[in-house]
């Protein structure tokens, strides 16, 4: 299915309310991973551009109208931005699919509504940020005020670029911060477009800046800049560690949402048909390039073979196809490097003794693209690399377990702690097991669901701090205590 729409225009930086070229004049090319063809040129942000953006955001925060605006006015502007995202849904979704390779069904029917929902939901928090009066002494008036931090740097990944703009920018902006978003160089287009729409919605200059460019230069400069008060990052654990080290030099606040190797646990008493669907969507949605993907499927031994057969049959029917076709459900991985990494893990798994039950190979569409078949590895031991390391692709490791204690032990025997799933008809078991799992999110008889009102983030090596919900609002504010002598 050829893309017959108009070519994508070159993308620029959004700094201080304007679309501008990089100071260096440099650009880079973003590619369509499904066709391996160039999409457009993108302005390449460098340290000088980061400095420009930080100064603009700093001025907007310290002397501009945004933090001093009536909260109801900030609410109105952010709500309008959510509306504009919906009005331009087809355009933004196409950019996302061209840039990332994910099916247009996901971009248009799911991701767009998530972004708009974030701006709509968090717009309401602008009018609901309150402090407390604290009865310390009758002779004093003592209270707290919750205030914005200042300038927030948001470094977002390539797997859900437009969603991450909503997750990071919406709560930070709602409470009066100014934001600089550094989208991944692989997928900058949707973030730039949302930045343009933010200006149309009425955000003052400098309040939201978008800086596409390499993480090693633009991202590193943002983390090191003394004018940035906080870094919020979603990405790999290794980069998260680097950010922590760099942020320490200027005592920046940091929140990190890092990798995952999430267990999806199926007990014998579960609705197996529903659990098969949940396991399937848990790993193959988003091509498996999902930090919370249910990449470890733990199945109780008494139903293991039956469950595996049903899942494998379903996985084999899922075929890579043109991401712009609305019927496609498995798109292209983001680039060749990621494809080779994923295929390398499949090879490692088989070498360790796992069995290739489905998929396992590259499968180009029309002779091109970084497509991989939906892959299922059975006979996996929990200590294998494919059970311990994040693959970040459509590869599922199936691990048998004996009972609830064994399931919990295997689920928690991992460096990560981002998410988990539990499938059972036993309500007591569901809640008992979920309490024992070291994971920031546990889905019971469902998987991979999100809402702007529910916090999301990890335990252990999956990071700290939270996106979404009231918890994320707290992440972008600080508390001031005020004492007044009334005598």
3D architecture notes:
This protein has 487 residues and is an alpha/beta fold. It has two domains: 267 residues, Aldehyde Dehydrogenase, Chain A, domain 1 (3-Layer(aba) Sandwich), CATH 3.40.605; 189 residues, Aldehyde Dehydrogenase, Chain A, domain 2 (3-Layer(aba) Sandwich). It contains 15 helices and 21 strands. The chain has a seven-stranded mixed sheet, with helices on both faces. Strand 6, helix 5 and strand 7 form a beta-alpha-beta unit. It is globular, with a radius of gyration of 23 Å. It starts with 12 loop residues before the first strand and ends with a strand. The mean pLDDT is 97.
Number of helical segments with 4 or more residues = 15
CATH topology of the largest domain: Aldehyde Dehydrogenase, Chain A, domain 1
Output the CATH class name of the largest domain.
Alpha Beta
What composes the largest sheet?
7 strands, mixed
Strand fraction: 15-25%
Helix/strand-derived category reads alpha/beta
| Span of the ends, CA to CA | 77 Å
Question: How many separate domains make up the residues?
Answer: 2
Number of strands: 21
- Give the overall silhouette: globular
Q: pLDDT below 50 for ≥5 consecutive residues: which ranges?
A: none
Averaged pLDDT? 97
Per CATH, the superfamily of the largest domain is Aldehyde Dehydrogenase, Chain A, domain 1
Q: What is Rg?
A: 23 Å
Instruction: Give the CATH architecture of the largest domain.
Output: 3-Layer(aba) Sandwich
Strand order of the largest sheet: 13-14-15-12-11-17-18
Helical fraction: 25-40%
